[in-house]
Inverse folding.
């Protein structure tokens, strides 16, 4: 996995071609991506869209997967309807349009992707879909993902212990950690489960973590 030491923002802004923050809204079982949010490390929007799958893409995704993805349940469909009620700056985009946006931004197989997760699901699911639609080598391999959640979780355990919160570890969910760090009055606080909002929160927490790691 990538790590934060590969990012050096002390002298100049980190370009989107170097590192970005990603968040997806997706079905965990079927791996269908519903909404994509990608920002640069300063929180500036790169991509805020819903997805449009082609029939070819759906067929290829299922045929090339190591297991057959189950059909979306009624609960999944309701959840997707709820997510699609959010405003999306870039509207609904096809895989071709998303691939074109990413390439024009300079994102490549060398770009580091920052994610609030325990595993690189976001990058994997998005890359899997683009590959199925015929757009290979747009996104980097999983080794280029930096799991910011794990950085925070490790430090929380070291400083707070493993039983500080009702006998257990402190909850390291994105909504909780963001509100602790920036307060409930921050414009982004409490607006999670919107891919762009989550990506913006991640960018702020990443910058905070890097600043805290600097020598006094």
């Amino acid at each position: 996995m990538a790590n934060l030491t590969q990012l050096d923002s002390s002298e100049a802004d980190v370009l989107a071609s170097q590192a970005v923050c990603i968040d997806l809204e997706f079905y965990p079982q079927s791996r269908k991506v519903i909404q994509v949010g990608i920002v640069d490390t300063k929180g500036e929007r790169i991509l805020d869209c819903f997805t449009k799958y082609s029939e070819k893409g759906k067929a290829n995704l299922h045929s090339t997967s190591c297991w057959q993805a189950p059909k979306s349940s009624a609960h999944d469909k309701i959840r997707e309807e709820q997510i699609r009620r959010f405003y999306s700056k870039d509207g609904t985009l096809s895989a071709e349009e998303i691939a074109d946006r990413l390439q024009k931004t300079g994102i490549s197989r060398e770009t580091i992707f920052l994610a609030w997760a325990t595993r690189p699901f976001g990058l994997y699911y998005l890359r899997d879909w683009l590959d199925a639609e015929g757009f290979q080598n747009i996104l980097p391999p999983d080794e280029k993902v930096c799991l910011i959640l794990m950085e925070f979780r490790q430090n929380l355990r070291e400083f707070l212990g493993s039983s500080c919160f009702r006998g257990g570890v402190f909850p390291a969910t994105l909504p909780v950690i963001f509100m602790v760090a920036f307060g409930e009055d921050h414009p982004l606080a409490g607006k999670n489960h919107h891919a762009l909002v989550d990506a913006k929160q991640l960018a702020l927490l990443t910058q905070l973590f890097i600043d805290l790691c600097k020598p006094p």
Summary: The first helix runs from residue 55 to 64. The chain is about 40% helix and 15% strand.
